[in-house]
Write a structure and sequence with these properties.
CATH architecture: Orthogonal Bundle
Strand content: under 5%
Number of strands: 0
Distance between the termini: 41 Å
Structural class: mainly alpha
Shape: globular
Radius of gyration: 23 Å
CATH topology: MetI-like fold
Length: 276
Amino acid sequence: MIPKIFGMIILSVIALMFLFPILWLADSAFRPQTDVLKVPPILIDKGLPAMGLFTLDSMKKALVDWNVFLSFINSVYITLAGIGLTIIICCMCAYAFSYLNFPLKRVVFVVILATMMLPMTTMIVPYFRVLGTLKLVGNPLGLIIPYAASAFGVFLLRQYFVKIPFSFIESARMEGAHDFRILFQIIMPLAKPAIAALSIVQFRQIWNDFLYPMLVLKNQALFTLPIKIQFMDSQNLNKPYDAILATGFIAAIIPIVFFLIFQRQFIEGMTGGVKH
C-alpha cells in the first residue's frame, strides 16, 4: 500500500511539472501586462485569490488591436484543408499498397517510409524552390498541398487496411464495385479509428508548424497563429507581452481540446484493429 501511495505522489508531482507551463499560460492570458511581468508569477505569489484579478483586456487587445482573430481563421482553414487532403491522399496510397499489385510495389513503399527519416530542415531548399516554380509562395496552397504528403499517414493507414478481411473487397468486386467505390464506401468507414488518429497527428503538426509557414506566407493577412506570435514578439519597442500570451493561449488550447475530444479514437486507431 505504501509503495503505491508513494508512486502516486511521484507521478502527481511529475504531472504538475508538465502542467505548470500550461496553467501559467492560461493564467497570464487573462492578466494585464503589469501582472504578466511580475516575478514570481502572481498566481504563485497570491495563490487562488489572484484569480479574482482576471480581465479580458489582454484577449481583446490580441483579437482586436493585433487582428489575431484573422490569424486564428487562417490556422483553422489551413489545418482543416490540410487534414482533409491528407486523409484523401493517404487513404488512396494505403489502399494501393494494401490491395493492388503493381511493379516495384515494395520498393516504392520502402522509399516512402525512408522519407520519414529525413529531418525537415534538409527539405527547406528543394521545398522552397518547387513552390517558387509553381508560383505558390505567398499562397496558402503552398502549405496545404505539401502537408498531404505524409509518409506516416500512408504507413498508419496501410497497417490498418491490411487487417480488414480481404473477403470484403472480393465480395464488392464480384458485385461490380470499382476501387474508388470500395475505398470510400467500404474501407474508409471501417478504418474510422485509424483516420481519426491520423487526423489528430496532422492537426498537431499543421496547427503548430512554424518553419514552413514562415517560408511561404509573406502577407500579414495570411499569417497563422505561430507566425503571428513571432511577428508580435519582433516589435522592438513596447512588446505586447499580454497580447502575446493571450495569443499563445488560443494557439495552445485548441489542440488540447481537440485531443481530449478524440482521444479514444486516437488510442484505438494507434493500437487497435478491425473487429470482425
